[in-house]
Amino acid sequence: MALKEWKETTRDRLFLLLAFLLPALWLVVFGYGLNLDVEDIPFAVLDRDHSELSRDYLQRFIQSRYFSFQGYADEERALDRLLTDTKIRAAIIVPERFQEQLVAGEPVAVQTLLDGTFPLHTDIAKGYVIAINQAFTEDRLIDFLRRSRGLTQEHAGVLVRPLSVEVRYLYNEEVRSTWSMVPALVMFTLMLASPLLTALGVVREKETGSIYNIYSSTVSRAEFLTGKLLPYIVISLVNVVVLWLMAVGLFQVPFKGNFLLFFSASVLFVFCTTGIGLLISLLVQTQMAALIITMIVAMIPTILFSGLLVPIASLTRGAKVQAHLYPAMYYTNIVRGSFLKGVGADVLWFDLLALGMFAAAISGVTYRLFTKRPKA
Amino acid sequence: MTARRQATTWGRRLAALTWKELLQLTRDLPLLLFLLYSFSLSVLVSGAGITMQLTNAELLVHDADHSPSSRELIHRFQPPYFAFAGEIRDPREGLRHLDAGRAMLLLEIPPRFHEALMSGERTAVQLLVDTTNAPQGLSAAAYTVRIAGLFGAERGLASAGLSGATASLPMVTSAHRVWFNPTQDERWFQSIAHVLRMTTIFAVLLPAAALVREKERGTVEQLLVSPLSPFQIMFAKVLAMSGVILLALSLALYGVLHPVFHVPMKGSTGLFFLLTALHVFTTAGFGLVAATLAKNQAQVGMMTLFVVGPMLLLSGITSPYESMPTWVQAIMTFSPLRYYIDITYGVMLKGAGFPVLWKSVGAMLLLGGTLFGFGMWRFRRQFQ
Amino acid sequence: MTSLTASSPDPVVRVSGLVKRYKQHLAVDGLDFTVNRGEIYGLIGPDGSGKSSVMKALAGVLQYEGGSAEVFGTVVDSERAAEHVKPRIGFLPQGLGLNLYPELSVEENIDFFAKLRLVPEADLRERKARLLAITRLDRFRGRLMKQLSGGMKQKLGLICTLIHEPELAILDEPTTGVDPVSRRDFWAILAEWQSAKGMTAIVSTAYMDEAARFHRLSFLSHGRVLASGTPAEVTALVPGLVVTFVSTPQLEAVARLKRRYAQVEALGPSVHLFTPERDAGAAVAEIREVLGDLPLEHLHTNEPELEDVVVALLLKEQDGQAGLSGRSGQAAHSATISQSDGLAVQARELVRDYNSFRAVDRVSFDVQQGEIFGLLGANGAGKTTVIKMLTGIVPPTGGEGRVAGEDMRTAGGAIKERIGYMSQAFSLYLDLTVLENIRLFAGIYGLARRQAQERMEWIVAMAGLSDYVRDRTGRLPMGVRQRLALGCALVHNPRVLFLDEPTSGVDPIGRRRFWELLSRLAREEGVAILITTHYLSEAEHCDRLALMYAGRIVAEGTPADLKIQLEQEVGQLLEIAVDRPGVALTHMLAAGFSGAALFGTKIHLLSRDPSRDEARLREVLAQVGLSVEAVRLRMLSLEDVFVSRVMALERAAQKEGQV
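^ inputs. structure came back:
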C-alpha cells in the first residue's frame, strides 16, 4: 500500500521536487528575510527652534538605527500629509524656545506624531522616543547639576542615574533574531508543507473512483490509512533532518538539546500534521476544497497561535484555548527548548505527551471517519 | 455582425462562464462553510485574541533586599506589559522556571539596594531574559531599563533634594499624539490583517484550483473548441471568485470589523471595494500562472503555497516592512499584498483617497496585467 | 476444483427485495435474482436502471436500504460482513481504467493489486504471465498506465481484478469504450477463468451482442427485473422477425413504416425493421402493404437478436408515453438553411508526435457537408488525436487540418461557432445540474435567452433527459451523461460535428435514437459529422469509413466497399453453431483454421472455399466428439472486417518485431 503511494508520488517529479524544495527554500528566505525587529522607522522633523540644542537632540534620532530620517518639514500640515501618505511613520516637532527653556532648567514637552495603524510598531517607536528622551534628559540634568550645584560630572551622574540594569540574555546570548526564528521556522515549514502532501490523497481517489479498489479489497482501514500516510511521513522526516542541518550548519544556531528527543518529537509532530491533511481529505468531496481548507487550517493558526511570532502568554483567553487545541504550539516549545535552551524530557514531557495525544486523537478520528461501505 | 452585437455576445459568454463558476462553488458545501468561517468567526478570534505588543511578560522576582525601595520598584512592573509570576527564594529555582518556559523574566534585586539608593551610591539590579523569542525579549528588557531608569532618576534626584521641584529641572518629555488609531487598539490592526490574509489566500487558490480542475477533468477542451478566448476562460474565473471574495469581505466588514471591533471606515467604501477587486485580480494572476504550469491539484497546491507563504509573512503585516533587508523589499515589490496593505489601512484608517494611493494602484495594475498576460500566454502554450 | 456446468444449482449470490435510494431518487426497487456457481451472469438494461448500484451493494462497497444481498451465504449488510466476503470477490468499477493508478506502470499496477490481496509471489508471477499473454499486454509491462489506450486500460483493469483469483468477479460495464479486438481478449480471459478456475461472474454490459455470451441474464429497468433467463429464453419473450431490405426513397419509406412499426431503422442504404409477425411470408406481405407504391428489394429475414428484443421490451414498458421516435421527430425543426455542398473537413498528411512516439502518421481524408464519416480503429490507433488536431486543441506536428477551409489553430470565433465537439472523456461539469450545463453552453455560444430556452427544450426532448433535468450530472448514469454531452455539443446548431465515441456506454434505445438524429442532421440539414465508435453495428450508419491502425489509415470506403474488399481478399463468412464453442474453437485453431473467432456463442470463420472448409471442420470437430449444430453462410459484418484487418496487421507487426 505504502509502496504504491510512494511510487505514485515519486512519479510526479514536479510535486516531489516542490515537496523537498519548499521547506528548505522557505527556511532560507524567512531565516534571512523575516526580520521582526522594528528598525528604520521613517520619520520627519519640524524644528521650530533651530538652536544648537535642538539640533543635538534631533541628531540623536537621525543617528539611531531605529529611525530613518526622511527630511525636515516647514509646517505641521506637511507632516500631516506625509503621515497620511505613509511616507513617514513618525514625526517630531521641536517647540520654539526649546534651548532657552532647557538652559533655564525648565522642562520641555516635545511633540511626537505617530502613525497608529500598526499598534505594535507605534508602541515600539514610542519606546525608542522615550529612551532617547531619557538619555538626552540625563545629559541635560548632569549639565544642569554641574552648572547650578557645582557638582563633578561623576557625582552628578550618580545622582541622575543611580540605578542601572544588568541584562543577561539567556539561551540566545547575542539576541539574534535568526536564532530565535530559525528553530520556529522548522516548525512552521513542517506545519505548512506536510498536511498539503496528504490532503489530496483520499479525495483524489474519491474523485477518480479508484477508491473502489480499496473499498472492495481486503485491505483493512488501518492498513489503508497508514499506507496513505507513510510515504509523506518519510518525506517530512527527511525534511526534518535537512532543516536541522541547515539550521545548525547554515544559520549556526546552537543545538543544545538531545537530538533523539528532538527527532522523536518530530516524528510525532509530522504524524499529526500529515494526519490533519488526511483528515481533511476524508471530510471533503473535492480536491479544490481539500486544498484550500488545508492551506488555511495549516497556515493561519500556525502564524498566529503557535508561538512563532506571538508568545502564547500574550494571547487572550480565547486565543490561548485555540493555541492549546493545535499541535504546533507544543512542537514550538520542543524545538526552541531543544535548540536554544538545551532542556530535556524532564521539562518537555508535557509537550511530548500532548503531541502524542494529538497523534492518537487524529488517527482515532480518521479511523472512525473512513468507511469502506459508504452510503452513496 | 455589428460591433454592438459582438459586444453583447462577448458579454453573454462571459456571464455564462462566470455564472458557472459561481454555481460550482455553491455545490461545494464544505468549502463554502469554510469560506464563511474564515471571514467571520476566524476574524473574530484572531482579531480579539492577539497582541503583538509586549503583554503579560511573566516576571519572577528574587528580592534579596525586601525593602521599601525594592517593593516600590517591583510595583512599577505593571500589566498589561508585565504579569507578576511570583517571588522566589533561590535564583537557581528561577532558572528552572525559565527553562520550563513558565516565566520570561527574572529580576534580581541585590541586598542593600535600598541603602545604596538612599545614600546616593550607584547600584544595579540584574535581569535575566529568555530570548528564545528575540524581539519579545528585547522589548521586555527595554521596558525594564526604562522603568529602572525612571525610578533611579527619581530616587537619585530626591536624595539630592530635588524631588519636589521637578518643574524646575531641564527634562525633555514627549507628548505623543497617535494618529489614525488614537487608542492604539490592536484589534483594529489584527482584524484587518486577518481579513487581508484570508482575502489573499482565497484569491490565489480559488481560481487556480478551478482552472486545474478543468484541466484534470478535460472540460477545458470543450471550452477550447468553443469560440471562447483564453482571456474569457480565465477572466470569468477571476470575476466569479472576486465576487465571492468581495461578498465574504463585506461579511467580515459589516459583521465583525464594524460592529464588534468598531474599526472605522474613514475613506470611501466604494473605493475600498474597487481596490479589493483589483487586489483579487492581481493575486489571482499568480494562481492562474501556477495553474497553467501545474498538471494536477497537488502541484498547484504546492506552487501556490510557495508563493503565498512569503507573501503573507514578508509583505508587511506580520513584520515591519521598513526594517526588512533590501533584497526582501525588492522581492516584495512583486507582492500585490504589499500594496494592498497600504491601500486597506490607508482607506480604512487614514481616509486616504485615490490621489494618495495612485502609486500603489498603478503598481498593482501593472503587476496584475503582466501576470494575466503571462498566464494567458502559458495557457495557450500548454496545449501545444 | 472440478469443472462445473453452468446450470448446477449452487447459489453464490442471492439478491432478494433489494432497495437502494439516493436521496429522493429510487435506484433499485425490490430486486430479486440468484447466481449459481460457475455461471457468467449478465445484468443488462438501460442507463439508470440500477445495475451499478446492485453490483456495488454485492461487492460490499455501498450501503443499501432494504432487502438483502447475500454472497457466499453471508448477508452483506455491515462492514464486518462485507470484509468477510471480500477476499473471495473481485470488483471492477465502471469507467475506463478509473480504478487504476495512472502514475504506475502496467506491472506495478498488477503488483499493487496483488499485494493488496496478499497473493503469494510465485502465484503472482505465474498468473501475471498468463493474463498478460492472453491480453497481449506483455509487451507493455513497463509502460505507465496513463500512456495506455482505453482498451488496454480496461484489460489491465480486468487483470488487476482477477489477479487474486476471486471466486466471484463483479464487473461493471467492463467493455464499454473498448474496441472489438480488445473486447475479444476480454471475453477470452473471462471464459478461461470461468472454465479453468470455476469462477462465477456478474457482468453488466451495454453491448447486446455480448449479452448472448451470458449463461443467464436479468434485464433491469427502473430498478426492477423486467425479464430474466438464458439469452434464448429472453429472446423468446418477444417473438417476431427482423426484416432487412432496400427501399427508395429511404426517408419516405422509413416515415411510412414508422406509422406502423415501433422499431424501424435506416442502416446505410437499407432499412432494418422488427415485426412481431413470426411468419416470414405474412411479415413481408404486411410490409409491402405499408410501403404501398415504394419498391422493396434485397430482402432478408432473420431471427431477432437480443438487441431487438431488448428494444421491444423497453418500448413495451414505455408504452403510453409518447412514441420515442415521434418525440424526437417533431423536435428537430429548428434548422437553419442548409448548405449541403462543399468540403467541411479536410485532413492533409496530418502527423502528430508525442516525444518519440508517432501517434498519427500522415492521415488524409475529406468529409463533405452532409456526410457522416466514421473513423474506426482499436483503442490507441490515433483517432482521438486526429479529432483533437482538427478541432484545434492539439497542434499537428506536420500536415494540416482544415474545417470549412480554415485552419483550426488560427480560426476565429466565427468558425468555432460553427463546430460542435464531444470529447471521449466525458467533459461536462459534474457538479452542475443537467439544465445548468445546457444553459452554460448556450451562454458560451452566445445564444440569446429565448433562443437558449428553445434549444434547451429541444435537447431535453432529443436526449430524453426530462427525468433528470434537476439532477447533478455527477450522479447520472454514464449513458445519460453521454446523451447530455451530445446535447451540449448540439446546442448552437453546429454545421460540423466532431463526435469522439459518443455512444460509449449508451443503451440500445439511446443509441438508436441518437443515430436517427444524426442521420436527420446530415440528410436534412447538411451537417457534416466526423464520428468514432466501437460499436461496429453502428458504423453501418456511416456514409464512409476509414479504418486506422497504429496512426495510419489502412482502409477507406463505404461500409459496403469495405466488406466487398475483404470478401475478395479473404473469402466468405461461415457461421458455425456448436454445443461447446470455446472448446471447439481451440481445436479448430489447432487444426489450422487460423481466422476462426468466437462471436457470441457462435464461431465465425472466413473462407475462400466454403464448402471444402465446412466439410473439413465438421470432420475435425467430430473427431473430438463435438457435435456441429449448423453451419451457414452469412453476410460479412463490419465487425468481421475490423477484426480480421486489425488481427492481420497485428500479426504482421509482431512478425516484424520478432525479426
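Chain B touches chain C through 28 residues (CB under 8 Å). The radius of gyration of chain B is 28 Å.
thumbs up if we can close this ticket
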